[in-house]
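$ run holo --ligand "zinc ion" --emit C-alpha cells
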Amino acid sequence: MKDVYILAIETSCDETSMAIVKNGCVVESFTVLSQMDTHALYGGVVPEIASRMHTENITLVLEETFNKSSISIEQIDAIAVTYAPGLLGSLLVGVEFAKTLSFVYKKPLLAVNHTIGHIYANAIDHPLQFPLLALVVSGGHTDLIFMREDYHFKVLGSTLDDAIGECFDKVARVLGLTYPGGPNVDKLAEKGQPTYALPKPVNDDSYHFSFSGLKSHIINLVHNEKQRGNEVRKEDLAKSFQVTVIDELIRKVELALKRNNVKEFIVAGGVSANRHLRAEMKKLADAYQVKFSIPEIKYCTDNAAMIGAAAYPLFLKGEFADFSLNAKSHISIDEKENNEN
Ligand code: KG4
Ligand code: ZN
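-- output --
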C-alpha cells in the first residue's frame, strides 16, 4: 500500500502544534510553539490570550513544519485537526485553519478527539495491542479506559471533580511554584521525603477518582502553618502529595488489571511526563505481565504528532469530516454515551 501522509494540527489549549505523520506511526516533521511563558505571567492559561496567540502563530508553525520536511503540501493525503475537547476559542482557530487548507488544497479532512490523540501517542512507536487498558492523566482528564479494539472506548472510571493535572497545578501554586506546576512539583518532590500524612482520595472499589479533598487539605495545611509562623517543608509536602495521588492511580489501575484480561497497559496525557508515575506504572505492568507503553516525554504533553497517529485509523476507515465541522469544548469518548466511534 502507498504511504499515507497526514498533516495534523493541534490548538486545543496553549500549544500551537503541527506534525506530518507517515502511516500513523512515523513522525516526519514536528513543531510545537508553546505559549507557556505568556500564561505563566497570569498563573494559568487565559483563554482569550490563547486563541489570539494561536491566530498569530499558526501560519508560522505551518511554514516551519514544511520547511523541516521533504514532503510538500501537495503530497499530503489528509488534514487532521483536534476539534474537541478543549478551549473553544483555541480549538476554533485550528478547525478553521484546517478547513481552509482542506478547501484550498482539496485534501480530505479528519476530525480528531484530543483525548483519543493522547491515547494514540502510544501508537507512534508500535501498533497498539488489544484488549488494552489506558490511563489518561492530563490537565483536563483522569480516565481509566478499556479498549477491546481500535477506536472502541469504554470509560471504566473518571474523576468526580478535579483532573489530576489541575490538582498538580493548584498544589504547585500554593507551594509558590510557577505555572505549569506539574513539572515543578515533580522536580521538587525528587528532593523530598513523604513525611506528611495526607488523606487518601477515594478509598473504595470503584474506578472513580477524586482529588479536590486532597487539594483543599494541602491548601489549608500550608495556610495554617503560615499563620502559626511555621515553615512548610516544601520538598517533603510535594513528595507526600505526589506519592498519595500516584498510590491512588496504582490502586485503581491494579483493580482494573485484576478484573480485565488485557494484553497491553498504556499511560497517556501531560501528567504521564511525571517521573515517579512513569516508574510506578512500569512496575505495575511488569507485575501483571502485560505489555507497557508510555509516550516519549515530547509526546506526553499536547502535540500534533499524537493527532496524526489518532487520525490514521479514521483515514483507513474513510471517516472524513465535512466543512460543517465545528469545535466542541466537551465531549465524551465513551461508546455508551455517544455514537461517534
Ligand atoms: O496533556 P496536557 O499537556 O494538557 C491537557 O490536555 O490538559 O497536560 C497538562 C498537564 C498540566 O496540568 C501539567 O502540570 C501536567 O500535565 N504535567 C505534569 C508533568 N508535566 C506536565 N504533571 C506532573 N508531573 C510532570 N512532570
Ligand atoms: Zn492534552
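-- notes --
The first strand starts at residue 5 and ends at 10.
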